[in-house]
Design goal:
This protein is of the alpha/beta class and 409 residues long. It has two domains: 142 residues, OB fold (Dihydrolipoamide Acetyltransferase, E2P), CATH 2.40.50.1070; 179 residues, Rossmann fold. The protein contains eleven helices and 17 strands. The strands form three sheets. An eight-stranded mixed beta sheet has the order 1-16-17-15-14-11-12-13, with helices on both faces. Strand 2 and strand 3 form a beta hairpin. The structure holds S-adenosyl-L-homocysteine. The site of S-adenosyl-L-homocysteine has 17 residues, from helix 7 and strand 12.
């Protein structure tokens, strides 16, 4: 065993001791694999998936692969003796496995959750019981800004009435003055969704901000934001490198969420158009553009497929399509519209390489070749891998383009 493997194994042994619930939780199903081994396994899997298209670059690893999750969720409940417990649902059940600390979650967030549980006793606040419907606190969600250090605590309650609210806030802030905002979210339905529709800000601004690639982004309780900020910067930098913008391009940022990729690309582009289905995310995206003083970007709330069909019908000229669909991948109408519009480049960012290759099959039937791809390890200690692919229109930069037959793996 070389030094690195020895260090990894030692680190993992200590992780195992640190996490007595690893067998039940399922959150980090690769806890017992040395990090180097995890990376090689992910690379091998991705290489196999991509074998018809392109030989991947070496995977982008996380230097310190622990405590990376900036969003931490704990479910609250009671044990048989009516003691308050907090933790995670045992995989596939509604049984709560008590957890005080987790090796992939932000440590401060875990500490705050333990403090809230402690305060509940002195405030006589009961945790919600799913069977009886009795009790107040259902979940706690904590989001942290990696660069700004801002912390948002979301208390998910079964009822809008929170007795001794002000004193509870005071007591929590005394223990954790680093908290910058506290929001009450009311969820009185029996649903597997954590957050309900009603929100009340009880301390601070109701959102936090974080910085990615030099731009500031607002994060509300419900908006999508990548959970591993350190690796997200590397992912976005790779996507931009693949896009190779020169300042003259018309760029589409499809499935844009709160507009992160498009805004980071905007400095190097003539114009950026972002499209996203979720209205809250589009609102955040517009605010983010304003806050960063970006003028050459517009956001549209629409289904990305429908939007691209319209663009293709209007014969819009697009140079680069950057797309980052959800796990289910993109749609036939989106992909066919890309083929009709013929951008020079498509940068496909995927959190599910299996749907990525399904979509690549359509895009590479004619006109496009995958010229570069790489896996980015956004989720150490799990079997998930994020991927970035560059597709280029055939006829340009021929020497760099792989054909299906000349890739040797
Ligand atoms: N690019 C963003 C978000 C990626 S997550 C980032 O890096 O932060 C995928 C996004 O696709 C989510 O914001 C989701 O709301 C959005 N989405 C899902 N289906 C969509 C559709 N049919 N049309 C447009 N956006 C969609």
């Amino acid at each position: 065993m070389n030094n690195k493997n020895r260090r990894d194994r030692k680190q993992n042994d200590s992780f195992k001791q640190l996490c007595p619930v690893s067998g039940k939780c399922g959150g980090c199903n690769w806890i017992d694999k040395p990090y180097e081994e995890q990376l090689r396994a992910k690379e091998k899997w991705f290489q196999e998936l991509m074998k018809l298209y392109c030989k991947p670059e070496p995977a982008i690893a996380m230097e310190e692969p622990a405590h990376y999750r900036n969003k931490v969720h704990a479910v609250f409940g009671e044990d048989r003796k009516h003691n308050t417990i907090s933790g995670i649902y045992e995989a596939g059940t509604h049984r709560i496995v008590p957890v005080d600390s987790c090796l992939i979650e932000n440590q401060k967030a875990d500490e705050i959750i333990v403090s809230i549980r402690g305060l509940m006793k002195s405030f006589k606040m009961r945790a919600y019981n799913e069977d009886t419907g009795y009790g107040l606190l259902r979940h706690v969600l904590i989001r942290t800004g990696h660069v700004t250090g801002q912390i948002m605590v979301v208390l998910v309650l079964s009822s809008p009435v929170m007795p001794s609210k002000n004193n509870f806030v005071k007591a929590l802030l005394k223990l954790h003055p680093e908290i910058t905002t506290i929001v009450v979210n009311v969820n009185n339905r029996s649903t597997s969704m954590v957050l309900g529709d009603k929100e009340q800000v009880i301390y601070g601004k109701g959102y936090i901000e974080d910085v990615l690639c030099g731009k500031t982004f607002r994060i509300s309780p419900k908006s999508f934001y990548q959970v591993n900020p350190v690796q997200t910067e590397k992912l976005y930098k790779k996507a931009l490198e693949y896009a190779g913008l020169t300042g003259k391009e018309m760029v589409v940022d499809a499935y844009c969420g709160t507009g992160t990729i498009g805004m980071i690309a905007s400095d190097g582009a003539k114009q950026v158009i972002g499209v996203e289905l979720n209205g809250d995310a589009v609102r955040d995206a517009r605010n983010n553009a304003k806050k960063n003083g970006i003028k050459n970007i517009q956001f549209y709330q629409n289904d990305a497929g429908k939007f691209l069909v319209e663009m293709a019908e209007q014969e819009a000229k697009v140079d680069v399509v950057m797309m980052d669909p959800p796990r289910s991948g993109s749609s036939e109408e989106f992909l066919q519209s890309v083929l009709r519009m013929k951008p020079e480049k498509v940068v496909y960012i995927s959190c599910n390489p299996e749907t990525l290759v399904r979509d690549l099959k359509i895009l590479t039937k004619r006109d496009y070749k995958v010229t570069k791809c790489v896996g980015v390890d956004m989720f150490p200690f799990t079997d998930s891998l994020e991927a970035v692919c560059l597709l280029e229109k055939m006829g340009i930069r021929k020497s760099k383009i792989y054909s299906r037959t000349d890739v040797v793996i």
